[in-house]
Write a structure and sequence with these properties.
271 residues, mainly alpha, elongated
């Protein structure tokens, strides 16, 4: 049996067993919310263990890929436990609304993050020949800008093309110094690149040999910068979801502890 199918089957069986056990517990005239609540809490702590594992990469606690798979499938189990614990109904109190919203944010961002971590590397591999890490993009951009400045400075000294130099100063100087066209990169549009190349081609209808050489080199740099921006946009998105998922996870844990304390305080007072 393929590993993916086995993992899905185990997860489905675990969720079915959860519903059966809670159903039997309720049949015995006990409050099932305490049982499925603690099961939900245990699942959330298991999810938190993955974040702890990432913070301690030096420890021999198993392969990171195995921890990620556990994190994903336990996450599906936790979603089922949450729906069971809430009886598939909307919250009633303000605290319950906070818990519900936090859980939805954590779950949706987690599922979205799983998709991004699968889709973005494949998309980058398909569209970007020379890939750099997200942390190296800033240095690569600065290096590219310095090379373009050198090219244009030499072209001015040789009087290759005044129109080309003026266009670079007015339109492309800032382009090489910061990320541009992020929205276009996220949707995979090549329109900004085509527009820049078309504008460069229109600068001179019959340029001399030297000007044509500078123009072609400049276009190559424009393409390289566009590719760098493409990597920046996609890798930035791949990192950005964590700034939602992780803080929301810790907030959810904290609010869940408060929720548990209040529930047991009320239940103790009722007796």
């Amino acid at each position: 049996m393929p590993q993916l199918v086995r993992n899905v089957v185990v997860t489905v069986v675990a969720i079915a067993a959860l519903f059966w056990v809670v159903g039997q517990y309720e049949t015995a005239l006990r409050n099932p919310r305490f049982l499925d609540g603690w099961i939900l809490a245990g699942g959330m702590l298991a999810q938190l263990a993955y974040h702890v594992r990432k913070l301690l990469p030096a420890l021999t606690l198993g392969r990171a890929a195995s921890w990620l798979k556990m994190h994903v499938y336990v996450g599906y189990f936790v979603i089922a436990a949450f729906l069971l614990h809430t009886s598939f109904s909307a919250p009633e109190t303000s605290l319950e609304w906070v818990l519900w919203i936090l859980f939805v944010v954590v779950s949706v961002s987690g599922v979205l993050g799983l998709y991004l971590t699968r889709a973005i590397p494949a998309r980058l591999q398909h569209m970007s020949a020379d890939q750099v890490t997200f942390e190296q993009i800033g240095a690569a951009r600065a290096k590219l800008a310095g090379e373009v400045d050198g090219l244009m400075l030499n072209s001015v000294k040789s009087a290759a093309s005044a129109a080309l130099s003026d266009y670079y100063a007015d339109h492309l100087y800032s382009y090489f110094r910061k990320p541009r066209h992020v929205a276009a990169h996220l949707v995979g549009s090549q329109y900004p690149l085509q527009a820049m190349c078309d504008n460069l081609d229109r600068l001179e209808s019959q340029p001399d040999t030297k000007a044509r050489e500078v123009l072609e080199k400049l276009k190559a740099y424009v393409v390289a910068k566009f590719d760098l921006d493409h990597q920046y946009a996609l890798q930035g998105l791949q990192h950005a979801w964590l700034f939602i998922h992780i803080p929301a996870t810790y907030c959810l844990i904290a609010m869940s502890v408060l929720h548990t304390m209040i529930v047991y305080a009320y239940s103790s007072g009722a007796r």
